[in-house]
Transcriptional regulator (Halomonas heilongjiangensis), 107 residues
Amino acid sequence: MKRREHTPDEREARLVALTRQLFAGEISEGRLLRTLRREVLGLSQEDYARLVGVSRRTLSDMEGDKGNVSLVVMNRVYRPLGLRVGLIPRQSALLERLFGADDGASG
């Protein structure tokens, strides 16, 4: 069954929704990667691995939250999705302050 092509706005909305789930601790990095690869790009593991220059096994391990890959590899894998690896707070309250609604404090 052929997947329906999504508009750029639909792809961006899905990316934002899933990234919010990641920040909320509702999904893992691997789940985010797998879902975006399949739903947003519509690519198989083999095709995506070839695109980003990693083995299918490495991609599979990343999607399964297994293995130990470098930041360079992680950034290479996430780049086509418009994402990069970075630091985020572990405490949800601080995360909400950083990414939540403007609380009126300006810098």
In short: Confidence is low (pLDDT under 50) at residues 103-107. The domain at 14-85 is CATH 1.10.260.40 (434 Repressor (Amino-terminal Domain)). Residues 8-23 form the longest helix (16 residues). The CA atoms of residues 15 and 36 lie 7 Å apart.
